[in-house]
Amino acid sequence: MFKDKAELELAAREVLPFLPFDGDDQDEMKTKQGAYSEVFPVNIHSSHHEFWTSHHEKAKKPLIEFKKERDVLKILGSKSPPHPHLIRLLATYRQKGKYHLIFPYAESNLRSYWEQRSLPEFDHETVMWALTQMYGISNALLRLHEFKVTFPLKVGGAANVRVKTEDDGEISVRAGEEKFGRHGDIKPENILYFSKGPEAKDPDSKSGIRPSGILSSPTYEPPECKLRRPVSRAYDIWSCGCVWLEFITWLVKGSAGIEEFADWRGNSAGLNDIDDDNFFTIPRESNSSSGATIRAGVILWVEQLHQHEKCSKLIHDLLKLIMKDLLLIDADERVKASEFHQQMKHCYQKATRDPDYMLKSAPLSPKDSKATLLKIPRHEGLGSHMASSDQRNINISRNSSVSRSSRDLNQKSKKTVTWPTDLTKG
């Protein structure tokens, strides 16, 4: 019944060849509801598809914006060879007035992956895997951003998502950006993890982004969204900066470090007195994106990462890329996807040639790390209400006011979970 890139019109009483799904993670088995769709896993009987011969699960996704997303996915997927970090559209069908897309089923997403491997080893295998994913995703984003559609993309639609403010006001797309692909909701939950290629051609674990996501996530959205400014492909660059910073935090401090980092960011964004874990703050009196600032908790956290005993020259370079090129308040100052990819390629190639660049401990002194961060434009001042991190450490709770403590940020969890030696077992 289902063939590669097939488009089927099914009768209402047609019995679909979907079998019960067997999975260990019950939360992953549940139907996920999004802005335009719902996603749930199924098994397709092997005699009713020609995608591959080996057993592998699939996921189906009913959509309202079916035709646009289908066309985008088909064109992106028609590139040869297909991009290993973009999700492949297998087939489509329509039944009972609903449109469906069929994708390979991913075992997990990056958020779950981090949580399941709470204390990764900072070794060659681990760091190279993480760097390979970041490099690959930057290339996938480049392909998406260079993709030109034959129909204008509004904020809600194919190859992007609807961007809403907290009061449900919608954001417009910047003039000239309507015909370029963009993702619009890059976050760990939308970076899917595959322990191996669905056709068993790629034995290594890898990750991939969906060419379009669901309702955008406030944590990873840039300042222009809260200010209701027109969005562009620079939206994705900011989101990558946020995710990359969490990825590095996981490498250096484990999954508990990601939660701690969220607490450090916890504060009001400035316009509505609602506490959040954004990466920026907009002063009450500000009505322009230039008035926004990188949150002090982010600055201090990056300072601590620069000083961490595990911090290598690679980690320093990635942190500098994030803070100087990705997490910039002015969308026009953020690097384009092409430059982002080139910088990731440089880090990747240097790491493959020089293991010491990737792994050898090279932490900065408190003085040097502060000097590096003070060069970052438009960040919150570290005034009297927030002490320098080499003397006191900021402790911000999402549900309380700012307080101080002298906790040791390098303190490790008592857990002894280590990175698996066989990544194909994910």
UniProtKB/TrEMBL annotation:
The lineage of its organism: Eukaryota, Fungi, Dikarya, Ascomycota, Pezizomycotina. Signal peptide: none annotated. It comes from the Eukaryota. Residues 378-426 are annotated as: Disordered. Residues 388-404 have a biased composition (Low complexity). InterPro entries: Kinase-like_dom_sf, Prot_kinase_dom. Gene3D superfamilies: Transferase(Phosphotransferase) domain 1. This is Protein kinase domain-containing protein. Residues 416-426 have a biased composition (Polar residues). GO terms for molecular function: ATP binding; protein serine/threonine kinase activity. Residues 25-349 form the Protein kinase domain.
